[in-house]
Amino acid sequence: MAILVTMGVDADDYPAARTAFGAAWHRLLTAIHATRDPQERFDRATEARERASKIVGEAANERADAAAGIQDAEDLSLTELGNRISVTKQGAYRLTSKARKEQR
Predict the structure, then answer these.
(1) How many helices (H) and strands (E) in the chain?
(2) Would you say residue 57 lies in a domain?
């Protein structure tokens, strides 16, 4: 799991950060689309896809960690956790197992 430096950032920053992220992503895609050379456009799109995959993985890790945190904080069974976060019991197991494996 990546360690994030959070000095000066808190949960209240989420809405603004989400908006900025969306704007930055749109700007990146617009720049890729505006690239005239087809090979360069392809390379840039590939790089953006690779970066997006990394971002998705990091978000999945955060989601798993948060699910484990909910389970621990509320002392929930996997079934109860699944109901709480709107996933199946198996989904809750996968999330919490991933988080606990990352914590080792």
Answers:
(1) 4, 0
(2) yes
Q: What is the mean pLDDT of the chain?
A: 92
100 is in which domain, residue-wise? 41-104
Domain assignment present for 66: yes
Q: 44, 78 in Cβ contact below 8 A?
A: no
| pTM score of the predicted model | 0.79
Residues contacting 35, CB < 8 A, separation 6+: 41, 44
pLDDT of residue 7: 62
Nearest to 17 by CA among 47, 62, 49: 62
- Spatial neighbors of 68 by CB under 8 A, at least 6 apart, are 95, 96, 99, 100, 103
